[in-house]
Amino acid sequence: MHETAYQITTLTPQQPTATAGLLPTEIPPGVQMVTLPGGARTLAYTPQQAPPAPPVPVAQPIPTWAKTTALLTPTIGGGIAAAGIGLSYAAPGLIAMTDALWAAVALIAAASIGVPMLLRIGRTTTGKGSTHITQNITASGMFGKANGTINHH
Question: What would the mean pLDDT of 98-118 be, rounded to a whole number?
Fold first, then answer.
């Protein structure tokens, strides 16, 4: 920015004025008529007015999606925690049910093997008297094979 230097002059009451003064349009920007402490009036540069302060930002309302998310977060976390607690309480029952199901599978497997054998043995025997049969069946492991023995007495 290019600034032009102006000479400041003062009029004393003894000096006669040759001209009527400056017209308001002839006064450069930033120059004003001021009264000095001694009472003399002169033209002087005045400080520029400070630029206006930037506008204060107005608080924006919180979006609805942010409110909804903030309200649902503890609910979802609490639901996950409740599900974890429920599963920890249900675990022993689930284990017992799986053991019972494997026992039922072993019983079905033993019956599918043992019943036909008993029927075969019953058909082949002659009427020599009554036969006492003891059957022992065991099964172990998740996919364990059922083993059985039949004892005739």
Answer: 91
